[in-house]
Amino acid sequence: MLNITRRPGLRSTIKAVIVTVMLLLMLIPLTMIRSLVYERELRADEAARDIIGGAGGSLEMVGPLLVLPYEVDVSEELDGKLRHYKRRGEVSLLPEHMSVDGVLDVEYRFRGIYKVPIYTVHLKADGGFIMPGPEVFPDGAVPLTGECRLVVGVADMRGIREVTPLMWNEIPVEFGPDVGHPSLGTGIGAGLPELPDSGSVVDFSWSMEVGGGGSVSVTPLGRDSELMLSGNWASPSFQGALLPDERQLDDKGFTARWRIPEVSRPIRPYWDSSDGMAPGGNASDLSVHALRVELLEPVGAYVRTERSVKYGALFLLIPFVVFFLFETLRKLRVHPVQYLLAGAADVLFYLLLLALSEHIGFNIAYIAAAAAVTLLISFYARSITGRQASSLAMPVVLTAAYLWLWVTLQSEDYALLIGSTGLFLIVALVMVLTRKVDWYGAESSGLTDAGSEGDEGEPGEFDVLLPEGNSDDGDGE
After folding, report:
1. pLDDT, tens only, 97-140
2. Which of 3, 7, 124, 289 registers the highest number of CB atoms within 10 A of its CB?
3. How many Cα atoms sit within 13 Å of 27 on the Cβ side?
4. What is the dihedral of CA 263, 269, 273, 277, to 10 degrees?
5. Separation between Cα atoms, residue 216 and residue 73, nearest integer Å
């Protein structure tokens, strides 16, 4: 049999190749676990959408607008004949000023192991209109003063639980479903009594209670508008066209205030919504001016688990490097199967982390999974090293590594810096510890067999990889 272990440098080269192949193979189950994390995250998102949909969806309120219908005589020549008919149209008018005050009451709703924050928002709106003159209507139009209405756009009306009557110039008017405004979409509307004379100021107000989840979006349409939102949610995300002018955040909740003067957004004070005229700018959708608060949860367990799996290849490398140093510095022989088992235990860390975090939270799950894997690999390393002091190297290195990963996961902004620094330190430590190793003569000094490769003179772990035969010692026989 060809004795590979007695050829200087060849044994360590083959061992390095085999260990590298095993390391690459361990990436397969690691990739499968990453796919499992993605699948579980999709299932959690689906449960969240179902819960939010059942609670009423996400509130998107736009308005109000004063809708002024009119009729105009039109003459057209059709089939060679002059025909006369009346065409109906609508002019939409913005309030002169508008303010909305909303208070969110947030709680968790559960479905199985998943929980999602939902809210009940209490909105109070008030403002005032200046009654328009004939200049807002097309030439020859006749206003239909008995059909005027105030409309408020609500994208998902399932969440509306209660709406108080509209107080229109101190006259209560009931709201009802609105068929849909060209610029607002679906919503609620209130038919108004005959309007006062041009130039008069009419005040209005109403309150509503809406349930939902995910986010609250409000687009107050006053020429000068103000929005105040507050709630018992400690981690809101302010999004939309503008950020709040004032905001306060603490562990009990948030308060935010927006002030939107007329000059800050390109919306016409009035427009003819029946002929396709846009409210302003290049978009007919008023929701582009929405002010939104999203109920942003702290970084979820699935996101942090997925981030930890990204470092899986590095963590597979750590026990392999320690075993490699055992062989190189302590003259211990570690079998490839022992490398493989240590790598398998390391991969199981991510599966344990995923499974436990769904039930006991990410922080406790991380501690439990890291402790279990560290103890398991350390116990196994002790059986390889015996009672030597080097057996303490594995628990120390793994504890430091999992602590380093913990710090990395807590810092999104500096994760790349911390990760690359840690990898550099590992490579630097291996280079420092092995800087005086004679790689070509390392095998000739003799290795302590910690496995079952045989004593001196017996075939080693790599001798069985090649077929039996006579070696050529140069004597020609």
Report:
1. 999 999 999 988 888 778 888 999 999 999 999 998 888 888 88
2. 289
3. 10
4. -50
5. 43
Check: pTM over 0.85? Answer yes or no. no
- Please name the residues in contact with 299: beta carbons below 8 A apart, sequence gap of 6 or more: 412
- Name the DSSP letter for residue 280: B
Among residues 66, 97, 64, the alpha carbon closest in space to that of 193 is found at 66
* One-letter amino acid for residue 62 of the chain: V
Q: Which residues pair with 77 in a beta bridge?
A: 82
Across residues 204-232, what is the average pLDDT?
92
Q: Taking CA 243 as the corner, what is the angle to CA 270 and CA 284, rounded to the nearest 5 degrees? A: 30
Predicted confidence (pLDDT) per residue in 276-335, tens digit: 566 764 445 677 888 999 987 765 778 788 888 877 777 777 787 777 777 767 677 778
Q: Are 49 and 58 in contact (CB under 8 A)?
A: no
DSSP 474: S
> Token digits for 104?
């969110």
Polymer length in residues for the chain = 477
What are the distances in angstroms from CA 267 to CA 11, 221, 270, 280, 464?
Answer: 78, 9, 8, 4, 82
Residue ranges of domains in the chain, CATH in brackets: 4-44+301-465 (no CATH), 56-295 (2.60.40)
Tokens of 397: 């290195």
In whole angstroms, what is the distance from residue 390 CA to residue 397 CA? 11
pLDDT reported for residue 218: 92
